[in-house]
Amino acid sequence: MYVAVKGGEEAISNAHQLLAKRRRGDTSVPALTVDQIAEQLSLAVARVMGEGSLYDEGLAALAIKQARGDLIEAAFLMRAYRTTLPRLGYSQPLDTGRMYIERRISATYKDLPGGQVLGPTFDYSHRLLDFALAADAEGLPEAVARRVSTPASMPRVTDLLGDEGLIEPDPARSADAAVSDLTREPLSFPADRDLRLQNLARGDEGFLLALAYSSQRGYARTHPFTGEIRYGAVEVEFFAEELGFAITLGTIKVTECQMVNQFSGSAKAAPTFTRGYGLVFGQVERKAMAMSMVDRAMRWEELGEELTAPVQDHEFVLSHSDNIQATGFVEHLKLPHYVDFQAELDLIRKLRAEWLEAQGAVDPANGKKEAAE
Amino acid sequence: MNHPSPAENAGGSAPNRQQVMAILAAASPEDLSKFKTALSFPTDFDIIRQPETGLVMIRGRAGGTGAEFNLGEVTVTRCVVRISSGETGSSYCLGRHKQKALDAALFDALWQNPTHRSAVEEKVIAALKHKQDQAKADVAAETEATKVDFFTMVRGDN
Fold first, then answer.
1. What is the CA radius of gyration of chain B?
2. Handedness of CA A210, A216, A219, A222 (dihedral sign)
3. Phi then psi dihedrals of residue A221, to 5 deg
4. Which InterPro entries match (chain A) (predicted)?
5. Residue pair A79/A53 in contact by the 8 Å Cβ criterion
6. DSSP-derived 3-state class of residue A101
7. Do A90 and A70 touch, CB atoms closer than 8 A?
């Protein structure tokens, strides 16, 4: 039974005004600009672009401001905004081998062609609060060191292993198979790797991190080594039908993680290392690593492994990785369920009456017993 | 540090249209607007396709070289104009800046006109490319300074 409920318009309208006031905070403190967020909270911006599945730094910064720093709410705003825009088409596949590198490290080879390039990282910081940043006038940062040298090529570590035949080749797809697109077709199973990678790329960082961690702790161990992490700008190329050629639209920043894992092999094929792959918008290294570990774990069937843990379970992982969907369903519990609950109340009263009656027939003095059970 | 890209002008020879469009797309809206006002190019044109912001789904490859997958979308603004001499210019730029898309399409049209091409190349494209190369070189030099130089401690005999 549905009951029309009216009222609350004024309360809602006032709540919106109050939200706007609380969002702004103390007006004696200058308002944040979207540029400030884009420039100085760039890792939050990257996370919102990734989980919102829309690369646009200005929009992500605006979303963070509007959402009062609630990054899932901000990603939600991005997802909602994208539905207002037409789809112009699909890019050519990114060539991460031609990245303008800003960071590139390998945990498998100390001396690799192109070297270990640390870039802007928290890795070697002491995690001590820097109170100088809390000073009113932060001032300009120190000039950074520069070193001009001949550009060195930076081959992927997986290509180096591949040249020796020590790692499985990247599984190719048949040319006529369409690439799955979650924004066009809802998630369905079985889910091939293209669909899984799209889902993980926009999945919640915390969820993927926990799943990756679970695999390290023994729930479907994959023995991962970070073959390589690279971060930098890559060109986006788009084939414009009306022009008849591909054009470069500009560059976006991405983080790529190549995880090298323990072996597969059979009577027919020699043992090789196996691959897990992570690729995300912006500098989001933790998620790129987690994504590559979850990707590898989900390849259990193809690599002849047993299904033993949640991280391998396609349906479990892919159905719960999207924090916009998850928050929608969890938070919908806040909405009025008055009628549903009225039915539950009627039912529980009836069940209790029956139970008490049955108990009463046997032992009328024991009516309060259920509270302790 | 990087392999050359097809959109880069490798040998300093005259750029082709793809390279011109890539350089215009990478330019800031302010720079394009500045060149348009500062230089005496004809700036009257008909709009063939209004500046339109849409989405391009970016594709990646599993493992970097394997099967394609959809990574996520990016905002793109495109535009088509025709200048009075008849050339049609197009632009496709990342982002949502409609005036920039208009200006980029205008310069693409002017570049196709034999009278204006050399001036567009010298005064606009070369200047933009210089600035873009400089920005890339700055990032490369700052990044290169964070490269690890390993040294091995050699243990003495005694």
1. 21
2. positive
3. -65, 140
4. PhnI (IPR008773)
5. yes
6. strand
7. no
**Tell me, what's the pLDDT at A373?**
42
Give the per-residue pLDDT at B158: 54
Would you say A58 and A66 are in contact if contact means Cβ atoms under 8 Å apart? Answer: no
Instruction: Please state the ipTM of this predicted complex.
Output: 0.90
State the Cα–Cα distance between residues A357 and A344, nearest whole angstrom: 20
Sign (positive or negative) of CA dihedral A328, A334, A336, A340: positive
* Contact with chain B for residue A113, Cβ under 8 A: no
Q: Using an 8 Å Cβ cutoff, are A206 and A214 in contact?
A: no
Residue A230: name the closest of A74, A119, A353, A360 by CA. Answer: A119
In this prediction, residue A361 carries a pLDDT of 60
pLDDT digits (tens, 9 = 90+) for A126-149: 999 988 888 777 778 889 999 988
Indicate the domain borders of chain B.
17-134
Contacting residues for B28 by C-beta, under 8 A, at least 6 apart: B100
Say if CB B3 and CB B109 are below 8 A apart. no
- Give me the residues of chain A with pLDDT under 70, please: 1-6, 174-176, 361-373
Interface probe for A, chosen from B133, B138, B143 (most Cβ of A below 10 Å), is B143
* Residues in chain B, overall count: 158
Percentages (nearest 5) of helix, strand, coil residues in chain A: 40, 15, 40
Choose the mutation target among B18, B59, B98 for the interface with A, i.e. most A CBs under 10 Å.
Answer: B59
Chain A contact set for B52 (CB, 8 A):
86
Cα distance between residue B68 and residue B49, in whole Å: 31
Give, in order, the Cα–Cα distances in Å from A170 to each of A63, A91, A274.
37, 20, 9
Question: CA dihedral defined by A119, A122, A125, A130, rounded to 10 degrees?
Answer: 110
Q: Per the CB < 8 Å rule, is A53 touching B54?
A: no
DSSP bridge pairs for B60: B69
User: B83-98 pLDDT, tens per residue?
Assistant: 999 999 999 999 999 9
Contact indicator for A229, A289 with CB cutoff of 8 Å: yes
Within B9-125, residue ranges assigned H as helices are 17-26, 29-38, 98-112, 117-119
Confidence of residue B13 (pLDDT cuts 50, 70, 90): confident
| Number of Cβ pairs < 8 A linking chain A and chain B | 245
